[in-house]
Amino acid sequence: MRRIALLAALVSLASCGDNRVILDVDIRSFVSEAILSASYGENPRIPAGLGEVSVALGPETILLPEGLDSVVRVVEGEIAVRAVFENATGSADASLALHFSEPGGDPFDAEPAVLLPIRLSHDFVTVVEETIPLDLETLNLFLNERVLMGLVIRLDASGSSQDLRGSERIEVLQARVVADPTIG
Q: pLDDT averaged over the chain?
């Protein structure tokens, strides 16, 4: 039934000229609270001078409308991310990476679709807010009924004189996929 309704909506769009289908996906709403808000540096401890530590979170499943892949062709898209790092002690060069894959795949095996560099300083709040264009391969994943997403936080405290400890909070994680109808 959902597929018939989707097809009917796209047929009406396709018959109205050069229209585009826009799919806004609130990825954040599919992600568990444990990933959206997590602490680092307590378990495991990240001692001063320690090299790179990576923390993989997920994967999480993002549910999407079925049948999109048969009625639209992706032309462009982007992802908006807003993350807040409340660093209590120590300093680090860090990054936030988002990985996506099809169901049955492992998102951590894929190259990151998003890679945001972050500089964490002692007793400082760092806000990272970016809108990043996504490649067509990643965007086409959003035409599936399900997409898997994994998040990796990389922390390098090798230049820190204090143990690294703090928390991260993902406030915005929103994808926008723009597609042309292929029917009509």
A: 89
Residues sharing a CB contact under 8 Å with residue 81, sequence separation 6 or more, in sequence order: 96, 98, 114, 116, 128, 129, 130, 131, 132, 170, 172, 173
For residue 150, the 8-state DSSP code is E
> What is the structure's pLDDT at 16?
44
Q: How many domains does the chain have?
A: 1
- The residues, ordered by sequence, that sit 6+ positions from 33 with a Cβ below 8 Å of its Cβ are none
**Residue 20 sits in a domain of what CATH number?**
2.60.120
CA dist., res. 123 & res. 88, Å (int)? 5
- Pick the closest to residue 66 from 126, 5, 20 (CA basis): 5
Give CA–CA dist 27/174, Å, rounded: 5
The angle formed by the CA atoms of residues 43, 47 and 51, to the nearest 5 degrees, is 105
Distance CA 25, CA 29 (A): 9
Phi then psi for 84, rounded to 5 degrees? -115, 125
The two structure tokens encoding residue 30: 């599919």
How many residues in the chain?
184
And the tokens for 52? 């790179």
DSSP helix/strand/coil, 100: strand
Residue 111 has pLDDT above 90, yes or no: yes
Residue 9 has pLDDT above 70, yes or no: no
Residue 179, H or E segment: strand 165-181
**Domain housing 14:** 2-181
